[in-house]
Design brief:
- This protein has 1089 residues and is an alpha+beta fold.
- Among the domains are: 123 residues, no CATH class; 99 residues, Pleckstrin-homology domain (PH domain)/Phosphotyrosine-binding domain (PTB) (PH-domain like, Roll), CATH 2.30.29.30; 111 residues, putative rabgap domain of human tbc1 domain family member 14 like domains (Helicase, Ruva Protein, domain 3), CATH 1.10.8; 128 residues, Cyclin A, domain 1 (Orthogonal Bundle), CATH 1.10.472.80.
- Helices cover 51% and strands 14% of the residues.
- It contains 41 helices and 28 strands.
- It is globular and about 110 Å long.
- About 11% of the residues have low confidence.
- Keywords: Cytoplasm, GTPase activation, Repeat.
- InterPro entries: EF-hand-dom_pair (IPR011992), EF_hand_dom (IPR002048), GRAM (IPR004182), PH-like_dom_sf (IPR011993), Rab-GAP-TBC_dom (IPR000195), Rab-GAP_TBC_sf (IPR035969).
Length: 1089
Amino acid sequence: MWLNPEEVLLKNALKLWVTEKSNDFFLLQRRRGHGDTGGKFTGLLVGALDSVLDSNARVTPFRILLQVPGSQVSWTIACGAAVGEMNRHWDWLVQNLLHSLSVFENKEDVASFVKGKVKGLIAEEVRGRQAAQEEEPEKFRETLLKFELCFGLPSSENLVTTYSCCCWKGRVPRQGWLYLSINHMAFYSFLLGKEVKFVIPWAEVTRLERVSTGLMTDMVRVTTRRCQRDFSMFLSLDEAFGVIVQLADIALRRLLDSEGLELDRVLQQSSNITKRVLEEQALRTYVLALFRLPRGERLQEVALCSVWTPHARCHTTGTLFTTDSYLCFASREEGHCSLLIPLSEVISIEKAESTSLLPNPVIVSVRSKKAFQLIELQDRDSLVDSLTSRLRALQWKHSMFRSKKSLTMEQVKERMWEDNFLEYGRGVHMFRTEKIQKLVAMGIPESLRGELWMTFSDASSELASHPDYYSGLVTESMGQSSLATEEIERDLHRSLPDHPAFQNVKGIAALRRVLTAYAHRNPKIGYCQSMNILASVLLLYTKEEEAFSLLVAVCERMLPDYFNRRVIGAQVDQSVFEELIRDRLPELAEHIPDLSPLSSISLSWFLTLFLSVLPFRSAVCVVDCFFFHGIKAIFQLGLAVLDANATALCASADDGQALMILTGFLDQVKYDEDPSPPAPYPLSSQSGEEEVSPPVKQHTLITDLIADSYEKFGDLTVRQIEKLRCRHRIQVLQAHEDTTKENALRVVTPDVSLSPENLADVYDLFQTEHFINLYWGDGGTTLALQHHDPGRPYVEQYRVDRVQFKSLYMLLVPWLCGFHTDTVAHRTFTLLDQDRDSLITFREFAGWLDTLYCEELNEKVRLLYRLHIPPALTESEDDPSPLKSPLLSTTRPLHVELPNGEMRDFQEQLKQMLKDLAKEKEKDVEQPVPPMNQREFIQFCKTLYSMFHGNPDENELFQAIATVTSLVLQIGEVGHRSRCSGSEVSSEGGAGEVVEDDHREGSQEDHPVFSTKEEEEGERKEGTSKSSGSESQSEWAVSYAQILASLLTEQQLVNFFEKPMDLSAKVAEAKVKQYHERAGLLMLQQGTS
C-alpha cells in the first residue's frame, strides 16, 4: 500500500534489504531472508533483528523507495507483504511518473512532486473506502467547502466526486485535484508556490478521449471550443474517465437535449446526482440495452447466481438483474446465454431446500408449465421477498385485463425450430443461446416471424397488458388533421409500392391507422420518414395491433432518439460507427481518412434497418437479427459490408464511386431461395474499345453475410456500444449547438451593425445565462428547460426571462442608472417582449444592443422615449420618485436661460428647434410614437439624471438637462394653455405666428410642436372622448420630436449620446463577471428565501 513519504537515512543498513528493481528515481527492495529458498539461517537472523529494531518490517517484507540522484536521503513511499501488489505499484510509478520526472531541472522539485502525488493517492484511497462504507461524511463536507471557496461557485452546484491527478501544461505536469460537479469540471493545484485553477462547464466540452503521448502512455484529453486540457496519473483512470464521460453526457443531454431524459427521472433533478447514482445509472443503461427493456424500467436488484440450463445439462454462472417488471439473466460471458422472464408470465417464486450441491436455490415457475432453477444466490431471503411483493402487485394490477390468448400460429415449417422450442422453451422467457442466434442468422420461417419478433422485442407482454389500447388510439386519432397526418398521407403510397399488399385500399388503410395511431400516442415524434417502410414490413408478418406494438418497441426502446426532430440517436450511432470502422477496419480507415461520406451512406442502413437498400427478402433477415440482438446486429452487418468491399473502396476515386460500389454490392445480396439471377457489378468500358461482358459474379447470400458479421465482429458487446454512444453523444449535441449558433448569427447579422465577433460573443453570453439558470436557478428545472426549444427557429431556440435579462442588462448596458437601473431594465424587458410571453429571443436582444452601441443619436433617444410611455411604463408602476408633484405653472415666463447667463426668447429657441427637427425629418421619416404626458416626462427626466450621475462631465450634463427640461416644460405648458383656451396662441411675431405658418406650409405631422388632444388620444388608441376643457394633468403632453429637438440644442448632451462605446471591452468584462455576479446574486436570494 502507499505510505506517507518517510525519510530513510540508511538505504541499506546492515544489508537487511535486497534490491529487486531499480531505476534513476525508485527502488523496489525485498527484506533479506524473505522468499529465499534454503536461506533458513539468514531468515532467522533477520527475523530476530526485526523483532528488536524494526517490527513493521516483519509484516511488510517489500518496500519502494524514492531516491534523488546525488542525495543520501531516500523516502519510503510504499510497502506490502505480497509481491504482486508491489509489482502493481512499481508498474504504476514507471508508467505514470518516471518519464515525467525527467523534465524537472531541480532535483528537490522531483522529491516534492512525487511526495505530493503519493499523498494524493493515499487521500483518494481513503476517500474511496469511506465512500464505499458511507462513513465520515464530514470529510466530504470539507472537500465541498474547499470546492466552493476555491472556485466561487454557489452551494447549489452539486459536487459529485474528486480525483487526484496531474494537469499538463506543455511538458510540465501540475499535481492537483480534479473536481467533478453536475455542471462543471474544475482543477486546482498549488505546487512549489504556484497556484493553478480553472473551471470548464460541461456545456463547452466538445470531445473527450483517452490518448497516448510521448511522455504518458494513457491520459484523458478534454477538448473545448477554446482550449485543450490533458490529465493523467489517476489512481484508476478507467473509473475517472467513465465518470467524466457520464457527467458530460448527462449535463449536455439535460441542457441541450432534454427530451432524451424524459424517462430518466433521477437525472432530471441534478441535486440527486451522486457518484453512486452515476454507477447505478450506468448499470441500468447497460441492462436496458442488453435486454431491450422499456426505458421506464428501474433496476431493482443485482445478484450473482447460476441458472440451470437444460440444453447444456449444467448450471451456467452469471448475473441476475431484476427490474420493475422483468427477471433478466446474463451469463458471465456476454452473448453466451441470456434469459428474460417477464413478471407478468411468472406464477410463483419459491425458495427450495438448500443442499451442498444446490446452495440457496430459488424456483421460478411460469405459465407455460416450465420452471427455472437459480442457485448460489446471496441474500436469497430478501431477494425473494422483494420479488414476491412486486409479483403480487403486478398480478393484482393485471388480473382485470388478463384474458385467454388463442394461439393462431402457422404450422412450424422448420424442424430445427421445433426442436429448439422443445429444448429451450417458447415465448418471452425462452433461453436465448448461441444456437438460437445461429437459427436467427439463417432466417426465421415466415410462419414464425411475427411471433418471434413479438417475443424477442417483448412487445407481446405490452400488448397483453393493454389489450384495447391500440383500438382506443385508432378511434381517437382517425379524422384528426395535423402536420403528421399530412406527411403520412403523402408517404402512404411510397411504402413498398411493388408489394401486392400495399397496392389495394385495405393495406393502405391498415398502414394509415398504424402510423396515425402512433403519431397520436407520441406527438413529440409524430411521424418521421422511414417509419412508413418499417411499419409496412411489420404489417406483412403480424396483425395490425401487433405491428403497432412492434413499432412502439422499435421507436421508443430499440432505436431511442432515432425518430425525433433532430434524429440525435441516428447521428450518435453514425459517429460510433465511424470509430468502429477505425478500430475494426484500420486499413480502410487509413485509405479513407475522412469517413463522413461512408457514414452518410450508412445512415439509411440504420434508419431503415437495411430495408431501403437490400432486396426485400434479404432485408427481412436483417430485421430478424435486429429483433434478436438489437442495434448490435446493424453495427456488425455494416462492418461486414464494408469489410467485404474494403479493397474496392480503397481504390475508389471519389465519394460517388464509393456509393456505386456499396449500392451494387447490396443490390446483389440475395436470399438463398430467391430464384432471380444475380446482378453483376456495373463496369465502364473505355471509349473506342468494344465492350466485353465481364464474368458474372456469383451473388452473395444474406445468410453468408450475416454469418460473416457474427464471425468477424461478434465480439462487439452491448456494453461497448453504450460506452461509445455516451461519449459520441457529447460531440453530436455540441455539433448541433454549433449549427444553431451559426444559423442564428446568419439570420440576425443583416439586421444589426454589430461586428461578427461581438455578435458571436453576445450569443455566448445569452446562451450561458440560460445555462446558469439551469445550473442554480430556483424556478424549477422543468420551467427553465422550456426556455430552450430545438423545434423553434434558430434565433428563438434560446430565450431568457425577466430575471435573466436583468442580469445581462447589468453586464452589457453602456449607461447604468444607479438605484434606478433595475426599474429601467424592467421597462426595457417589457418593451422588447412584443409577444407578451415573458420571454425575449436572441433577435430581440441583439436588436436592443445594436440600438445602444451602433445606432445614431435619434434612435437612442427614441429608445429612451419609448421606455417611458406605455407599454414599457405602466400606470400601476410603483415609483417612489420625489418629482410626482405637478410641475405646471401658469406664471412661468416664456424664456430660456442659457448657460452663459444670456436670456433667449422662447420664440427664437422654438424656431431653432423646428429647423433642427426639419433636418431630421429630411433624413428619415420614422413611424410616429405616442406623445408623453407629464408623469411620463418626469420619469424620463429621472432616468436621464440617473444616467449622468458619476460621469466625469456630471455638472455640465446636469446643467444641460436642466435647460432642456425647462424648455420642454414650457413647450408643454404652451400646448396646455392653447387647449384650455380652445383657441390658437396668436401674438404678433410670437410663437403662434410660427405655428400658423407651419399649418399653412405643411401638416402638423411635419413639425409636431403642439399636439391636439384628439391626436394624443388617437395615437394611444384609448378611444376616449375629448375632455370638457378642465385643466387636468393628463392634458399636458409633449411629443418625441419636441424632446429630440430640445436635446439637440445642448451640445453636451449630443456629445454624450454620440460618444463611441466599445462593446468588445464590455463583452470581455461580462465574460469574467457573468458567473460570479450571478452566482452571488443567487446565493443572496437563497439566503433571504
